[in-house]
Specification:
The chain has helices at about 1-25, 35-60, 70-95, 110-125, 135-140, 145-165. It is mainly alpha-helical and about 170 residues long. Helix 1 (about 1-25) runs antiparallel to helix 2. The longest helix is centred in the first third of the chain and has 30 residues, at about 35-60.
Amino acid sequence: QVAIQYVLNCAEAVLGATALLWRESHPRRFDKLSTMLNLILLGSIVAPLVTSAAMAGAFVALGVTEDFWLTTIARTITNTFATMTLVPLIAHGASRLRPGEFRLDWSRAPEALLIAVCLLIVGAVVSIVPNVPHERFPALLYAPIPLLLLATVRFGIVGASGSILL
């Protein structure tokens, strides 16, 4: 089971990267709409869906699970979230570690820390301390959106990906 997951996770990464390279000349930055759309559609939806279907088929054949579609959908959703959150963050972080390009603006650190603390507080209030009737609970899920937008506007792709990950 672990070997199947490992091989299919590697295949998903190769499939998603190949699709991005096929559609974009230099998808090393995700600050263009076309690059982000290709990442979302090809790297975050198509690649996980294809490999999730293969994994669910293998698991059904091995008797690990009986529900092909539930396994496919659950893995696709989790891998989509991981790809959309981590890939831009890693790509932009790696590009900033190149010699001569690494610069840390300490004047922006308090703002980033404040946004992170606020996101943690809002996340805790929404997910840990829900003391509202069930019909009003879905409205609480929108509470982090202003902070996510603020992080995106102030810190770009890295702020968006980092705050969503947080």
